[in-house]
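Notebook p. 47: complex prediction with pyridoxal-5'-phosphate.
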Amino acid sequence: MQHRQTQVIRTRIEQTPEMEHAAPMFLTSSFCFNDAEEMRAAFADENDNNIYSRFSNPNVQEFTDRMCTLEGAEAGFATASGMSAIFGSFMALMKQGDHLLSCNAIFGSTHTVIAKYLPKYGISHSYIPATATEAEWEAAITPQTRMIYLETPTNPGLEILDLEMIGRVAKKHNVILNVDNCFATPVAQQPIRFGADLVVHSATKWLDGQGRVLGGVIVGKKELIKEIYLFCRSTGPSLSPFNAWLLSRSLETLEVRMERHASNALYLAQSLEGHAKLAGVRYPLLPTHPQHAIAVRQMQNGGGIVCFELKDGLEAGRTFLNSLKMLSLTANLGDTRSIASHPASTTHAKLTEAERQAVNITPGLIRISVGLEHKEDILADILQALDQA
Ligand SMILES: *Cc1c(COP(=O)(O)O)cnc(C)c1O
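Predicted complex, structure tokens below:
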């Protein structure tokens, strides 16, 4: 069998009679039928014809097929954003009375969906720390628990959860394991290998990799994806064919990009460790990382995010950001250009101080999304800004 990277690059929309080399863009809202019978059969699900781009589209299908190959998944559905992928995976598979067990260190908007909106539909939740033991995970499962949800590495604390252990717990209790694999990407980690039933992504981040478009995708077990597809095709968070075309091209370079992001990140983390202005540096592949052993076991690289903690807290954080000359101050991550952000005042500002403390978001925490610039230029900008802070 061909290598995964070859399969991703060579999976494509069937060539049209024009014999184009690159995949064409199918910017069409609907598709035609030769006759009444063919149309009837399409609506009756008796053939695989495209009907309407809210249901399916060749560009979206190509992107989804490539993501299934990367994650080792049976099926998938692509959405307009990471949040619509996450929301769709919750709403299609849980009902009133069900319980969601989620790690407490999750993306800010995911926390809002779980804590503010799911209760409106009678779906309860409880949070568990990223460092919970197997016994603690087991104890947190109730007879109503339908799904376990987590991210690893977490955002922005970069804690590593043991996928093999949690996969075992989910299987034992017959609970769906849903993993947000946005930070690691399938190049570094494939949660399905450890027992995940579903993997969700914000394609907006590393998958696009150039800060251009929003997108999301859910891949996993066929019967679960079927439910998600039926929910999404009726409620409408479908991915635009234009965005799908861009994202699908991006997947052809994902592996080489992620290798460089990760080697730049490791260089940055190693170079900053022990700096006089810093209370600590976090990166999964630093031996000082508390879950380093788990990271080495389940990740092929450490990803592109490095976090550090300024000794002098909030004010030093502000001065640091204001002193950067090259790095961008922006809400995104996973770009060719390196980005600095201050989670406590931005992405995680809606959490209470206690909630932030529980997930390791201290006032002086800085998150760097390490780009593809030369590693020495990235380091030099951060070092000169630390001198000012
Ligand atoms: C950005 C992000 C999301 C949400 O994705 P959008 O594409 O912005 O909707 C979800 N999870 C993680 C870990 C993210 O970084």
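Notes: The chain has two domains: 4-251, 254-388. The mean pLDDT is 96.
Next step: compare against the earlier run before touching the bench.
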